């Protein structure tokens, strides 16, 4: 009886002990499984985030490289215009460009150097009068003459005296300057050989070749700018040598080496001729006097005064820098935003031509692409 009792007891106790063992093992297994699930969930989220980031890069980087007018889906006209200016402007782009932008700091320095050199070159070309010479060609001469006619017309209505060369520099010159900035940008970015470009290839060789070509163009422009600056300084020196030989020879103001003027005093017509020859457009008084002045080093330098305005050779030698500073400012902060906005709006291509079509053309192409993708998906589901 005891044995049967024992067997019954043991038979009853065995399931209880097993169930208690299962209950004691279940929390640890559940904790282990939940930890594994948590790790897998984190890993899957990171994988999805990395994949999403790669997908965004595949979309944005090519658009940034080719100066896309429409960057991100859902952007308004104002948002796209603002990002376009921040990513492409030669100056603002240093601080405000997109983090994923393929054009980095060194490349932007090259672009800015090219912009500065181009502005300096065209300023001195205008000041040297090369655009009005026969060597410039009929087209350039005609544009320059049209600018002169515009200046004459505005003088008849406003009585504001402007110089044709300066008006040409601040209009046509600044416009060409902004166009050069855009061209050197496209060359440096080499958007055609990046993912999503026209060729559909990601060629590092072509990208490097385009960058080195842009550097070569910038070096050439710096050389041209240096050349025309030296030509300008030499021409200014020759003018002073021809007009003021008595100063260059160290003679006093009563010297007869300068027979056209008596006691270094000119009448109004002579003063006008002199002022025009050195590039000044200030109104002259009845008499203009000349004298030797002493600079900080103790050497005599040629100088003259027109009324109450005093000029010296050292001042007029670098007078073109004022025109250059104005041209550079207008080109970068006026004409560049206006020119880029004109391309951005698509008015030049009525929204239907690549590049000239601007943002409307890109939105049209994006809508067509999305429509084709939807048609492909629907046809695949039907099959």
Automatic annotation (TrEMBL):
Transmembrane regions: 109-131, 167-188, 209-231, 318-338
Name the keywords, alphabetized.
Membrane, Transmembrane, Transmembrane helix
Low complexity bias: where? 1-13
Region spans: Disordered: 1-38
Among its keywords, does the record have Membrane? Answer: yes
Tell me what this protein is called: Uncharacterized protein
**Which species does the entry assign this protein to?**
Cyclotella atomus
């Amino acid at each position: 009886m005891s044995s049967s009792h024992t067997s019954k007891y043991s038979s009853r106790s065995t399931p209880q002990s097993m169930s208690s063992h299962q209950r004691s093992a279940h929390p640890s297994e559940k904790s282990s499984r939940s930890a594994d699930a948590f790790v897998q969930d984190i890993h899957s989220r990171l994988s999805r985030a990395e994949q999403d980031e790669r997908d965004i890069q595949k979309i944005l980087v090519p658009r940034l490289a080719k100066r896309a007018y429409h960057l991100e889906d859902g952007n308004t006209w104002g948002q796209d215009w603002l990002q376009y200016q921040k990513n492409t402007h030669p100056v603002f782009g240093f601080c405000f460009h997109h983090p994923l932008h393929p054009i980095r700091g060194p490349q932007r320095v090259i672009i800015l150097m090219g912009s500065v050199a181009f502005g300096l070159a065209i300023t001195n070309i205008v000041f040297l009068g090369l655009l009005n010479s026969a060597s410039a060609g009929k087209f350039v001469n005609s544009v320059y003459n049209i600018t002169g006619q515009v200046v004459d017309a505005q003088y008849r209505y406003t009585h504001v005296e402007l110089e044709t060369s300066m008006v040409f520099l601040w209009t046509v010159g600044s416009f060409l300057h902004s166009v050069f900035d855009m061209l050197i940008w496209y060359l440096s970015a080499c958007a055609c050989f990046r993912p999503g470009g026209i060729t559909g290839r990601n060629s590092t060789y072509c990208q490097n070749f385009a960058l080195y070509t842009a550097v070569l163009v910038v070096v050439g422009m710096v050389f041209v700018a240096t050349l025309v600056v030296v030509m300008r300084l030499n021409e200014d020196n020759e003018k002073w040598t021809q007009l003021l030989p008595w100063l260059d020879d160290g003679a006093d103001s009563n010297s007869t080496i300068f027979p056209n003027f008596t006691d270094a005093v000119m009448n109004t017509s002579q003063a006008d001729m002199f002022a025009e020859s050195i590039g000044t457009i200030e109104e002259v008084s009845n008499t203009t006097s000349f004298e030797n002045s002493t600079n900080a080093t103790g050497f005599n330098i040629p100088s003259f005064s027109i009324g109450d305005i005093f000029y010296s050779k050292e001042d007029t030698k670098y007078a073109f820098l004022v025109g250059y500073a104005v041209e550079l400012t207008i080109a970068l902060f006026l004409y560049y935003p206006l020119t880029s906005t004109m391309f951005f709006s698509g008015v030049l291509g009525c929204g239907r031509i690549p590049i000239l079509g601007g943002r409307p053309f890109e939105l049209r192409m994006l809508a067509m692409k999305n429509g084709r993708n939807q048609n492909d998906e629907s046809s695949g589901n039907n099959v």
